[in-house]
């Protein structure tokens, strides 16, 4: 007999999906062009505001359209099955598989940094692949094992982050002389192209606030529990993100972090010294395991929904005796393994972040369409301050996407190609179905 996921498990999935590589790695890229601590905190505050507005919008979408699958379900029902298919195609190829690869690569980099002899590039790749495969084996078995392990991993993650932040606030031997108050010139930084590009990394770090909508069909009474899950998970992560960046900037010189990936390890050395930094860096590496776990759990549900709706891909919908989509789990993990072997960390972040933002942009626009199509629906949750809340999310997200297109046209072209290939697959699958 299958077991529904509990609300606390769904909240844990959101928290673990969001708190991954982005918050522990992106500061180094942001500091290449932004030197203001106030502007850095504003990046994360604006990102948190966008995520909260998105979560509120998805809470209404999820109660109106309560089925697992996330954007695949929303876009397919609101616009056209082709839109849903392309969204699911993005989730399959980029949405979860690429971030899993990025987190696994960051895990291997953190592990290499804390080992006295380090790890060769080949060994780092092997370690990342081992993490991906082990999480696939864990989540391809049963919901009870999946949900219980995810809740435990996330609880450990939040506890360790809070302990790290308290240490960074109170026991740093030589805190950096930084001020988080605005100063002259900060206004121009907040409106600069560099700030907009940095928001791409921030939006990637906040990616995952919508993760519970991928398993909403496996929740008990999702129309009442889903809004609370989305909002509480997003608020918790936003608070932790801002607190972490206060600690990072107090613990280590900005010059030491500029352009670096292992930000958490660098800050840990500033707090605990070299030996203690290795231990704390090891704990930060362990935190990334829960992120790989959460994405391995949530992502295959979109693939499962595609398999249920498209006969040509029905093999993706096959489940084991506990109704776990084993084939979808294994397929997504195989794609993630491919990214681990072939792609760089920064390439994955920019490409995946922009495509996921575009996906959620269409979904939130769909809320306006749904309100016009079904204005009098009796649903348990409506977005407060509508239409201001979804418009805030759309404005911030569109702002970052415009700068991606303007400053990284190759990335935009690659995204367009991926979407086009998805449309071709949709047309082929429909033709095979009619045949």
TrEMBL record:
Compartments, as annotated in UniProt: Membrane
Keyword entries, A-Z: Membrane, Transmembrane, Transmembrane helix
Recorded superkingdom: Bacteria
Protein name, UniProt field: Amino acid permease
Membrane topology, record value: Multi-pass membrane protein
InterPro entries recorded: AA/rel_permease1, AminoAcid_Transporter
Gene3D superfamilies: Amino acid/polyamine transporter I
Organism annotation: Algimonas ampicilliniresistens
PANTHER family linked: AMINO ACID TRANSPORTER (PTHR11785), SOBREMESA, ISOFORM B (PTHR11785:SF512)
Regions that span the bilayer: 12-32, 38-61, 82-107, 119-140, 152-172, 192-217, 229-248, 279-303, 324-342, 348-371, 383-404, 410-428
């Amino acid at each position: 007999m299958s077991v529904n996921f509990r609300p606390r498990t769904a909240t844990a999935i959101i928290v673990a999906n969001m708190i991954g590589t982005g918050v522990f790695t992106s500061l180094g890229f942001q500091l290449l062009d932004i030197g203001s601590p106030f502007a850095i905190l504003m990046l994360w505050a604006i990102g948190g505001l966008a995520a909260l507005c998105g979560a509120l919008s998805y809470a209404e979408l999820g109660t109106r359209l309560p089925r697992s699958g996330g954007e695949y379900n929303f876009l397919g029902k609101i616009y056209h099955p082709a839109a849903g298919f392309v969204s699911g195609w993005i989730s399959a190829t980029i949405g979860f598989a690429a971030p899993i690869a990025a987190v696994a690569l960051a895990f291997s980099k953190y592990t290499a940094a804390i080992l006295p002899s380090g790890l060769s590039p080949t060994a780092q790749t092997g370690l990342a692949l081992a993490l991906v495969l082990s999480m696939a084996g864990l989540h391809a078995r049963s919901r009870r094992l999946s949900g219980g392990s995810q809740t435990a991993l996330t609880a450990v993650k939040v506890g360790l982050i809070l302990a790290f932040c308290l240490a960074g606030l109170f026991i740093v031997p030589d805190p950096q002389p930084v001020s988080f108050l605005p100063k002259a010139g900060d206004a121009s930084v907040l409106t600069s192209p560099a700030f907009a590009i940095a928001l791409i990394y921030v939006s990637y770090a906040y990616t995952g606030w919508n993760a519970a909508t991928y398993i909403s069909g496996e929740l008990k009474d999702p129309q009442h529990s889903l809004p609370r899950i989305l909002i509480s998970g997003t608020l918790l992560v936003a608070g932790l993100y801002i607190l972490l960046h206060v600690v990072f900037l107090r613990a280590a010189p900005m010059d030491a972090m500029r352009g670096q990936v292992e930000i958490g390890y660098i800050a840990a050395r500033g707090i605990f010294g070299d030996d203690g930094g290795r231990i704390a860096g090891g704990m930060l590496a362990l935190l990334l395991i829960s992120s790989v776990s959460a994405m391995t759990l949530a992502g295959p549900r979109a693939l499962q929904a595609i398999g249920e709706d498209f006969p040509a891909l029905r093999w993706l919908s096959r489940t084991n005796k506990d109704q776990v989509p084993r084939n979808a789990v294994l397929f997504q993990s195989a794609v993630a393994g491919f990214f681990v072997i072939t792609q760089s960390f920064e390439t994955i972040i920019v490409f995946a972040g922009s495509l996921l933002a575009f996906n959620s942009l269409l979904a939130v626009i769909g809320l306006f369409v749904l309100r016009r199509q079904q204005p009098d629906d009796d649903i348990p949750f409506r977005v407060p301050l509508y239409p201001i809340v979804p418009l805030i999310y759309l404005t911030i997200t569109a702002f970052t996407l415009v700068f991606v297109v303007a400053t990284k046209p190759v990335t935009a072209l690659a995204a367009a190609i991926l979407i086009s290939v998805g449309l071709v697959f949709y047309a082929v699958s429909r033709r095979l179905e009619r045949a």
